[in-house]
Each structure stands twice: as C-alpha cells, then as structure tokens.
C-alpha cells in the first residue's frame, strides 16, 4: 500500500522517542564534563618519559632510536656531556612537539629501554601554539607510579622484564 | 467630529498618500525589480482603502488576487526577462524635461472633470458582503460568470500547450 | 561567477531560460569534505558538471618516499579516515608480498575480524550521510553513530585509538586482543542485525526515499566496467566483482558468504546493496569468531621488524597488494630499491576512480539529485586527493 | 468557577481598563483596550516562537537518542533566550553585490503577514483579537502575500543558491495554495460564513468537523498543504539545507535571519491554529477552559509537524508538484462534492454516501498515480 512505508518510519522515530525515557540504550549521551567515559588500558594519546626515583634521573639514555623512527620527526634529543666533554648516558634536552605528534605509538614500540610510553591525557588545549605545545624534558617526565596507575598490565610486564634483566 | 472620525479620515488620506507615493516610485525607480515591489505596495494600499470603507470581502480578494497571484506572475516575468547577472536594467531616458508638457495637459483635463461631476454620497442600499455577492453571482450574473471561467480555461490550456513543447 | 571553462556556451534556444552557472563549491554542506563541482544549470536541470579536486592534497605518496616501511603505516590510517584498518590491511599485504613475510593463523583471523568491523562502520555511516543529503534532519546519522560508538570503543580497547588505529604490522598485528574481545564482538554481531532491521524499517520502504532514489543517477554496466569502478558502486550496477571472492587474499577463502548484486545501478541500488553487504559481513564475523585459534599474534620476523624497523630488509623489486576496502578495490603499488625506504609508493584509491563517472551520472538530473548521487558514490576526500 | 477560569484573560483586561478609566478621557480608553490586545499578540508571537524552537530541538533530540539543549537554564529553558541574544549580537552582513533595498525589505515584509494572521484566530471563548466577517479569507489573503516577499528576499541577496531557493519557494507556495483553499471550502460550505468564530460555534460540544467523512479528508488535506505552505519538512525545499545551502535566507545573518526564523515558526503555529479552528473545533471542549483546549490541540498539531521533521527526507521539486497537482487537487474537488452532498442529504444517508464517494476517489487517484509510484525491488546474490 502506498503510504505504509511512511507510517512505519514515523513509528520508528516515536518508538525511539518514548524508549529514550526508559532505557539508557536509547539515550546514549554522556554529559562530558560531569560524566566521563573510562578509557581502556591501551588507549594512547601523547608520549611521556618515565623515571624511577627523581625527574632528572630518567630511564632514557638518549640513544635517539625513537627520534629516528618517529614518522613525523617530532622528537629532538641532545645528549648530555660532563665537563670534560664526554657524552653521558642521559639527555640534556629531550623535547617532543605535541602539535606535530600524530600519537601513532611507534616510539613506544621501538624504545629498547622502556623509557617512552603513551600517556592518556587528551585535555591539553593551550592558547599559544609554538611554545606551549613544545613539551620539554621536565614537562614530559612522569613517575613510574603514575605510569602503573594508568596502565597496570604493561607496567607489571615491564617490572618483571627489568627485574629479570638486573639478575 | 469626534476624535475617531478625525483619526479615521486622517488614516484614509494617509493611505491615499501612501498609494500615490508608491505609484510614483513604481514608475520612476530605475531598478525593474524595485518597481515591481512598489506596484505591490500600491495594490496593498488600495486594499487598505477598501478596509476603511468596510468592504472587507473586496479588500481580502484584492490582496489575495493582486498581490498573491498577479504580482508573483509579474515578478517572475521581471526575473526571467532581465539578465539575471546585473542588478539594474539600464533605462535610457534622455530628455526628461519635455515629458511635463503632456503630463500637465492630461492632469488638467482630469482634475477639471473630477471637480465638475456631481458625486452623490448616499449610503449603499444593501451591505455588500460575501453572502450577497455570492447570491448575485449565482443568480443574476451566472452567464458572465460562466463566460469568464471559460476564458480562464482557454488561458490555462494555452499555457500548458506552450510549456509542454519543451 | 563566470568561470572561463564554461564560457563557450552553445547557442540557447528561444524559450530557454538563461543558463545558471553554480559552483557547488568547496564550502558546501554536503560535499563530504573539500570538493567542488562547477555545475551549469538550465532551471533545475544539470547540463554540465565539472568536478574540481585537490583541495585536500597532502602529498601523501611523495612523503612516503623518505619514510621507513613501518613509519608509512600510521599515514595509511589517514587515507580513508573512516576505515583506517582496511587501509592498514592492504598496505601490510603489499609489503608482506614484497618482503615475503608469513602471517600466523590467529593474526589472519584478527585481521579479517577488524576489516569486517570497519566495513560495518563505513556502510552505516554512509547510509546515515546519504539520508542527510536527502534531507532527513540527522536522524539516520545519529542512529548510525549510536552503533558506531560501540565499535569505536572496541577499536580503542584493541588498537589504542578510535579512528587512527595503526594496528597492523608486517607479519601480523601489533598486540594481542584483550581477553573479553571475542565476547564483545559476539555481542555486537548478535545485536547489529536488530539495529539494521530498525534502520530498514525507517528507511527502505519510505515512499519519499523510494521516489527520490529510484532511477536517479543510473550507472550503466558497460560504463562502470570501462571506467574501472570497483566496490559496492560496481556491484549495484549488476557486476558481481568482489576481490574477497576473486583473490581470496588472507583467509577469506575459508568463509562462506554471499555477494549482493543490484540491477538498475541507481542511487537506491547503491544504498540497498550496502545494507545487504553489512548483513554478509556479519556472517563472516560470526564464522571468524567461532574458528579463531590461539597462538602468537605476529611472526618472529614481523616482531623483529616491529621492534627494530631498521633491520627490515625489503628486497629490490615491486609488488601490488589489493584488498576489498569498504569503498572499493584499495591497492598499494610499492617499488623497493633495497634501501630502508620505498622507492615508489602509489595508492590505487577507489574513491578517486569512482568519482570519474560523476558527470556521466549527473547529466540531465536535477540539482537535488547531484548531491545524492555524489553521496551514493561514497567518497572520502582524504583518499581522493591523497 | 470554571467560567471564571475560562474568561480569565478577558477579566484581566477589564480590570486593567477599570483601573485606568478614572484617569483618562473616554476615547483614550477604547484606544487602550485595542492597544492591550495588540501588545499581547506582539509579545505572544515571539515568545511562542522561542519556545517552539526549544520544543522542537528537545523533541527531535529525544527521537535521536540524545538530550537536546539542557545547559542554559534547568531543562534548557533559557536556551531560546541565549539564541535571541546570539542573534542580536551577530553581525548583520549585507553582501556587497546584493540589492540593498530588496535585501533590507525581505525580512520585514516576511514577518508582517505572520503577525497579522494572528488577529483572526479565536484563542478562546470570545477571545478573538478582531472578529472579521471574512476571517478565513483574510488569513489566506495575508498568507498568500508571503510568496512575494520570500521571492524579494531571494532576489535581493543576489546569490545563485537563494535564487534557486526563491524559484522553488514561489513554485511550491503557488501550487499548494489552491488545494489549501479548496480544502477549507467544505467547512465554509457547511457553516455558511467566513468568520472563524461562526465556524467554531458550528462545532458545538464534540461535533468537530473532523469526525465527518469529508471533514477527515479535509483535515488531512489542509494539514498537508499547511505544512507545505509553511515550508516545513518534507516540503522544505525553499531552504533545502543539503542542496542549496539555506535557500532564500542564505545571505542573511544576525537579526534579519532571526526574523526569518521567527516568521517560519509563527507561520507553523498560525497554520496549526487554523487547522484546529476549522476542523478540530477550535476551543470547543468538554470540561477544561476554552483557551487550554485550543493550545493543547495546536501543540499536538505542531508536534506532528516536528515529528515529520525528525523522520522524513525531502521531496524533489517535480515530485512535490506532482503530489500537489495530481494528488491533493483532485481529492480537494471531490471532497467539496462530498461535503455538498453531505449537507444536502439527511443524517444516515449522507455519511454513508460521502464516505463511499471519498474512499472510491482516493482509490481512483491512487490507481491513476500507479505508474508514477515507486516499486519495491528484490535483490539477487552472486557466489551463492
């Protein structure tokens, strides 16, 4: 019959309207600032550097593998030197340009020293584009406890691997 | 002369003045489309006159037919003829001065004729409203009514024949 | 707007209204991105249409020539940003064919599951936006987005990001799936047909949709084949050409599924073929979940190449890997000169090639139809302009 | 007690007049009473429009499994206010090539008919702003001018999309005016006068015209053509967002756009008000006060219009015309015939006769348009 399809369409929308008052399935809005969706274990946004005891003793040894492998080349590292000019095993400068980084997670995979991991923080808006998004070493450094808080399983695996290596 | 009569007459004359201004603008303005819009304002002014004279049915018909239908037709005609690209269609009118001579002559004749004729201002016998008009149309004037509808029918068929040729 | 290309108009007949040159410009509410069509109209009828592209050209192919093989993978997500995993799939296949890397069983199944979930997302979003072009005030789109959110949350848990997944590696996938993955996919597979039935009830027999989409923008079979059209647009014109059935790449040979085919090749066929395809993808997902084995997720060589990308030795030569992406045949033609970087990297983008027949379909149609014909071809400008 | 609630607005006006009467001369009092009615209408119009927009956004929001505006005010009640402020503060851009006179004239002349039209709608028992003897005809006369003004706005903004929108608007409104007028004529035939108050009085108690066979068909006809006349979905071609951006009001921003927006919603309200007056018995209703009945029926009709907007895609221009000329117009003529027969014959016979005439004619129109109607298709599968 000619008009049936039109009526069925009307029936679907009014069904959705009435059901939206009863089941959450039909009302899927998450009121963002008040309610938040809990992100999963592997969710990744921007890279951070992990340190064990204090922020200036990073796990990173400035081997620059991640800088070479990063597709958009947003990591830049300068190796530290002691007074005699002998290169040391930690970075003097380590900054990532968050506005260039496309959070692909390759740096996390290729880092042999488990020092760079992907954080989950996405509310990073800023007024100024050039300086504020160029994250320097101290802004990138995050403690191991923070890391194990946001990513428990990976942190556990990394701990076992590091203990095995020390033995 | 209570205040109401004073208000009513001033409104009446104001409407007439509005019609005159709109009609003058409609003729003199350069942009074709503006003159069509001013024509619409004159027609609405005339409808307001009918309202003031309590001939509501005629006023409603005036608006419905003239402004609703005929003006739309005229505006369509204006849009389709003038080149859509440029805003104003150039009107070449070199010697404006000499036009006042015939204008003055015609004006004089008209005004003198108006002043001479004896306008008898008696009350209309039967209140003209929709019901009386309808009865008159169907009883006494049914023949002209049918002829007019025939003419409209012919016009309709003509339009379809022209449009169908595309 | 007197663009030079349209200046030499042929002589107008007497009764003709003046021709109207309209540019449905890059900023238009329903060109699915930055895409311009210079249309010559006679009243509402389209006389000539010239697509203008290139607004979103990001120099993708040249950029890849100084990236390592692995570094190209995250860029393939950005080609057709609606189905990132389908792009990863064909790029991974092309490199594996070139470098001769094997893929373990479990990874093959995971790849097929991910590809079919992406097909679901792409088709419901397309149906939603096609209805939005038709004028339905956002209702079908929001129903489609309600379902898409479930799938995107699943992608976030598995691959780490909702749309830019970067999950495939040469020789398998980046990381094993979380334990409840199979349960969640099964729940989606059970619940999706109910959503599709509701969407069909709202749309498929709606008289306004039927009269607006039937016999509009007809793509004849011969033209479709000659123009190299692939994907649902080709199948809607009546040619059963599906690369999953022809190449039987990866493990598609093991799954039993059908390929829907339309006959008139108009907008309605393209719409309905996609809905039937979604039902077929659900069949594939059903069989894939039941048969998925355990085991490692990436081969020895693959893991080593992922960990140390420099060590991936791709021998000299060229290869062309293609898969049935939701929009058509997405192929990667890679030439390697033995160094760590691809010498030549070309993407056969289905949207770009399907767009070439836009003018033939739009001549003689109304302005309103041009928009839905463009919508029914399902183009994404990231893939068209690369 | 009930009667006082029913006449509460008239009493309020009387109280105001009584307070003022000792201070002002007698002729001024008449002016003031007219002035009160005009002020209430001019305030009532925009306020109804503001809260109609909110009702529409929440209603369609819920249809789409989301909330709809709930940030300004408790349930988003201040949202129309914030929209209004936004419209005030937005810059009012006049395109450089646009024709300033027509561009400026557009919104003003579009808003006048939608406000004038309120004067003939009976909101409650003897609560009609001006009881014209030609109420319905006045409504259509004023509503039909809006075609011209919409075209002025389209032509004035000198933009190809608004030109297309303007052409579509004129074609659509002209071709839907005829079935709209014809669908009203049966009610006038039965009542015998144009005045809206007479029409409502003729539908005493629960004898609404919609329960008679010709009334039902007339109601559906009048509602559909009303939706088309007001340019709402599924007939919203003049401002087809997806095709011609925003149709005739593409080049308008700021307060001018707000006037167009307000005119659209006020027209929607006045058309549904007229449908309730003519076919759903205006303010006639058993217990509740008269104006409550009137507003309840009107809001039911408006929510049906919003329901349409949340569900249907848009019709194409030629289908829209075909639907009007091939579908609604013949039905309107036959409905007129059925109503004439209904009036002429006595009770049992007239209902049956007009009912079968109408069903036969609906089937005939359906068969006549069979060729045009789209067909359902079955799809084959390769690789079985």
From TrEMBL, chain A:
Its keywords, alphabetically, are: 4Fe-4S, Iron, Iron-sulfur, Metal-binding, Repeat
InterPro entries membership: 4Fe4S_Fe-S-bd, 4Fe4S_Fe_S_CS, NADH_quinone_OxRdtase_chainI
All copies of domain 4Fe-4S ferredoxin-type, residue ranges: 51-80, 92-121
> What GO MF terms are annotated?
4 iron, 4 sulfur cluster binding; metal ion binding; oxidoreductase activity, acting on NAD(P)H
> Which Pfam families does UniProt cross-reference here?
Fer4_7
Cellular component GO terms, alphabetical = membrane
The record's section on SUPFAM superfamilies has:
4Fe-4S ferredoxins
Q: What PANTHER family has UniProt attached to this entry?
A: NADH DEHYDROGENASE UBIQUINONE IRON-SULFUR PROTEIN 8, MITOCHONDRIAL
The protein's name: 4Fe-4S ferredoxin-type domain-containing protein
Q: Which organism is it from?
A: Candidatus Danuiimicrobium aquiferis
Automatic annotation (TrEMBL), chain D:
Signal peptide: which range, if any?
none
Q: Which residues cross the membrane?
A: 27-54, 104-124, 136-157, 178-200, 206-228, 265-284, 290-308, 320-343, 349-368
Give membrane topology per the record. Multi-pass membrane protein
From its record, what is one biological process in GO terms? aerobic respiration
Task: Give the PROSITE patterns listed for this entry.
Answer: COMPLEX1_ND1_1 (PS00667), COMPLEX1_ND1_2 (PS00668)
| EC numbers for this chain | 7.1.1.-
Name one cellular component (GO) term: plasma membrane
Q: Enumerate the subcellular locations listed in this protein's record, separating them with semicolons.
A: Cell membrane; Membrane
Q: Which residues form a coiled coil?
A: none
Catalyzed reaction equations: a quinone + NADH + 5 H(+)(in) = a quinol + NAD(+) + 4 H(+)(out)
Described by its record, this protein's role is as follows: NDH-1 shuttles electrons from NADH, via FMN and iron-sulfur (Fe-S) centers, to quinones in the respiratory chain. The immediate electron acceptor for the enzyme in this species is believed to be ubiquinone. Couples the redox reaction to proton translocation (for every two electrons transferred, four hydrogen ions are translocated across the cytoplasmic membrane), and thus conserves the redox energy in a proton gradient. This subunit may bind ubiquinone.
Q: What is this protein called?
A: NADH-quinone oxidoreductase subunit H
């Amino acid at each position: 019959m000619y008009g049936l399809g039109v009526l069925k369409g009307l029936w679907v929308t009014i069904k959705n309207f009435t059901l939206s008052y009863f089941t959450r399935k039909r009302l899927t809005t998450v009121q963002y600032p008040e309610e938040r969706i809990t992100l999963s274990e592997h969710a990744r946004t921007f890279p951070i550097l992990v340190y064990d005891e204090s922020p200036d003793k990073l796990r990173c040894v400035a081997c620059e593998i991640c800088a070479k492998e990063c597709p958009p080349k947003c990591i830049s590292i300068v190796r530290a030197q002691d007074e005699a000019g002998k290169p040391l095993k930690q970075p003097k400068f380590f900054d990532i340009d968050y506005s260039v980084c496309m959070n692909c997670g390759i740096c996390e995979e290729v880092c042999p020293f488990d020092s760079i991991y992907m954080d989950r923080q996405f509310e990073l808006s800023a007024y100024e584009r050039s300086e504020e998004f160029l994250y320097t070493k101290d802004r990138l450094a995050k403690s191991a406890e923070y890391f194990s808080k946001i990513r428990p399983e990976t942190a556990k695996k990394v701990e076992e691997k590091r203990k095995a290596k020390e033995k | 002369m209570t205040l109401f009569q004073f208000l009513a007459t001033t409104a009446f004359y104001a409407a007439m003045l509005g019609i005159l201004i709109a009609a003058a603008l409609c003729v003199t303005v350069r942009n074709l489309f503006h003159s069509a819009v001013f024509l619409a304002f004159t027609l609405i002014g005339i409808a307001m006159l009918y309202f003031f004279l309590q001939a509501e049915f005629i006023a409603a018909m005036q608006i419905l037919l003239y402004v609703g239908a005929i003006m739309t037709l005229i505006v369509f005609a204006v849009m389709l003829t003038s080149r859509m690209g440029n805003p104003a269609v150039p009107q070449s009118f070199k010697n404006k001065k000499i036009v006042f001579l015939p204008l003055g002559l015609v004006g004089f004749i008209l005004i003198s004729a108006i002043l001479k004729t004896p306008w008898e201002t008696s009350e209309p016998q039967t209140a003209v409203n929709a019901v009386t008009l309808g009865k008159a149309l169907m009883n006494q004037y049914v023949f002209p009514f049918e002829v007019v509808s025939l003419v409209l029918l012919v016009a309709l068929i003509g339009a379809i024949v022209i449009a169908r040729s595309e | 707007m007197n663009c030079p290309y349209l200046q030499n108009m042929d002589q107008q007949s007497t009764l003709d209204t003046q021709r109207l040159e309209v540019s449905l410009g890059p900023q238009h509410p329903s060109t699915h991105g930055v895409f311009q069509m210079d249309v010559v109209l006679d009243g509402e009828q389209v006389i000539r249409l010239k697509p203008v592209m290139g607004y979103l050209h990001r120099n993708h192919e040249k950029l890849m020539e100084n990236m390592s093989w692995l570094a190209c993978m995250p860029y393939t997500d950005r080609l057709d940003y609606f189905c990132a995993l389908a792009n990863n799939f064909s790029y991974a296949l092309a490199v594996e064919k070139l470098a001769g890397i094997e893929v373990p069983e479990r990874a093959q199944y995971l790849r097929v599951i991910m590809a079919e979930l992406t097909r679901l997302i792409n088709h419901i979003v397309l149906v939603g936006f096609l209805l939005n072009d038709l004028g339905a005030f956002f209702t079908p789109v929001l129903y489609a987005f309600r379902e898409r959110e479930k799938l995107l949350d699943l992608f976030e848990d598995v691959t780490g990001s909702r749309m830019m997944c970067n999950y495939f590696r040469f020789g398998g996938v980046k990381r094993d799936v979380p334990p409840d993955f199979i349960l969640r996919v099964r729940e989606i597979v059970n619940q999706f047909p109910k959503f599709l039935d509701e969407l069909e009830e709202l749309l498929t027999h709606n008289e306004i949709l039927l009269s607006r989409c039937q016999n509009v923008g007809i793509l004849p079979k011969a033209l479709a084949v000659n123009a190299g059209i692939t994907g649902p647009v080709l199948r809607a014109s009546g040619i059963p050409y599906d690369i999953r059935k022809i190449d039987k790449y990866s493990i598609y040979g093991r799954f039993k599924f059908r390929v829907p085919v339309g006959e008139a090749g108009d907008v309605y066929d393209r719409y309905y073929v996609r809905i039937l395809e979604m039902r077929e993808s659900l069949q594939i997902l059903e069989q894939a979940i039941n048969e998925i084995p355990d085991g490692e997720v990436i081969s020895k060589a693959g893991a080593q190449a992922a960990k140390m990308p420099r060590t991936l030795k791709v021998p000299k030569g060229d290869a062309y890997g293609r898969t049935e992406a939701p929009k058509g045949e997405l192929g990667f033609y890679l030439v390697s000169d033995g160094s760590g970087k691809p010498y030549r990297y070309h993407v056969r983008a289905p949207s770009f090639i399907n767009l070439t027949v836009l003018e033939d379909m739009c001549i003689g149609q109304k302005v309103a139809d041009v928009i839905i014909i463009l919508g029914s071809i399902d183009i994404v400008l990231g893939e068209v302009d690369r | 007690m009930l009667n006082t609630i029913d006449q509460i607005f008239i009493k309020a006006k009387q109280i105001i007049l009584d307070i003022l009467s000792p201070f002002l001369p007698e002729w001024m009092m008449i002016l003031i009473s007219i002035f009160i009615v005009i002020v209430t209408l001019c305030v009532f119009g925009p306020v109804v429009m503001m809260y109609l927009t909110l009702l529409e956004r929440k209603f369609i929001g819920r249809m789409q499994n989301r909330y709809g505006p709930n940030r300004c005010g408790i349930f988003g009640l201040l949202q129309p206010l914030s929209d209004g402020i936004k419209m005030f503060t937005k810059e009012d851009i006049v395109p450089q090539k646009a024709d300033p006179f027509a561009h400026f004239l557009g919104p003003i002349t579009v808003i006048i008919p939608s406000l004038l039209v309120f004067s003939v709608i009976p909101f409650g028992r003897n609560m009609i702003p001006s009881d014209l003897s030609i109420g319905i005809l006045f409504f259509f006369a004023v509503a039909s001018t809006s075609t011209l003004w919409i075209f002025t706005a389209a032509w004035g903004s000198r933009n190809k999309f608004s030109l297309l929108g303007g052409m579509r608007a004129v074609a659509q409104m002209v071709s839907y005016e005829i079935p709209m007028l014809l669908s009203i004529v049966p009610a006038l035939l039965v009542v015998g006068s144009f005045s809206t108050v007479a029409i409502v009085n003729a539908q005493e108690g629960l004898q609404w015209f919609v329960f008679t066979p010709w009334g039902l068909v007339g109601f559906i006809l009048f509602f559909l053509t009303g939706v088309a006349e007001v340019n709402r979905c599924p007939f919203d071609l003049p401002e087809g967002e997806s095709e011609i951006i925003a149709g005739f009001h593409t080049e308008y921003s700021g307060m001018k756009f707000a006037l167009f927006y307000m005119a659209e919603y006020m027209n929607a309200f006045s058309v549904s008000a007229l449908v309730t007056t003519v076919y759903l018995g205006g303010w006639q209703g058993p217990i509740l006060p008269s104006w409550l009945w009137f507003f309840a029926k009107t809001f039911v009709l408006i929510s049906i219009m919003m329901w349409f907007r949340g569900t249907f895609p848009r019709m194409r221009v030629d289908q829209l015309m075909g639907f009007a000329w091939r579908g609604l117009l013949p039905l309107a003529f036959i409905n007129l015939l059925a109503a004439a027969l209904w009036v002429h014959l006595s009770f049992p016979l007239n209902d049956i006769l007009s009912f079968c005439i109408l069903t036969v004619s609906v089937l005939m129109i359906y068969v006549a348009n069979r060729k045009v109607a789209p067909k359902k298709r079955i799809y084959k599968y390769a690789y079985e």
